[in-house]
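Appendix B, Record 12. Input sequence as logged:
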Amino acid sequence: MKIVSASFVTSASGRNGYPGGELPDVAFAGRSNVGKSSLINMLVNRKSLARTSKSPGRTQLINFFLVNDKFYLVDLPGYGFAKVPEKVRIKWGKMIEEYLSQRENLRGVVMLVDSRHDPTRLDHQMYQWLCHYKIATVIVVTKIDKLSKNQANRQLARIKKELGVLPEHPLVATSAKTRAGRKELLEEIYNLLQ
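Logged structural output:
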């Protein structure tokens, strides 16, 4: 799949703010600071389409990006250790759950896990939730450039085993920095959209 255009459309905190129409969505989910926005920027060949930040919790709304005038990439707020009040974290959780369970245009979720760490309790919860609701999922292991080839292979196997990744859910290693895995991930997104 070739990406020729990408533009920010809207930010939403609930259903009333989602774009209308029939175009399909592919959502990006993962803990705070796992690299969702950086990965979206790498995929669409833009430096700052999705806003990135060193501090966790930058994405606070559901952000919709129109790609090739054919589908949306959707950047969900990160879950986990963002330095925000508990009330805000609960609100984000509800916002994400409402989107994932009720958005009819959703075709699949790209779930990101940091290659440098084992999956967290929240990663396990998210993956189990996606499996429970039978949402097509691609597991993306980010920041793979931070590991040696041997470390990367070991960590990929470990993440796959720890999460209990189902055979129908592809695992793709990526790096927003080196652009590793871009072609493979675009292929998987194309498959989700079919």
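The chain has a mean pLDDT of 89.
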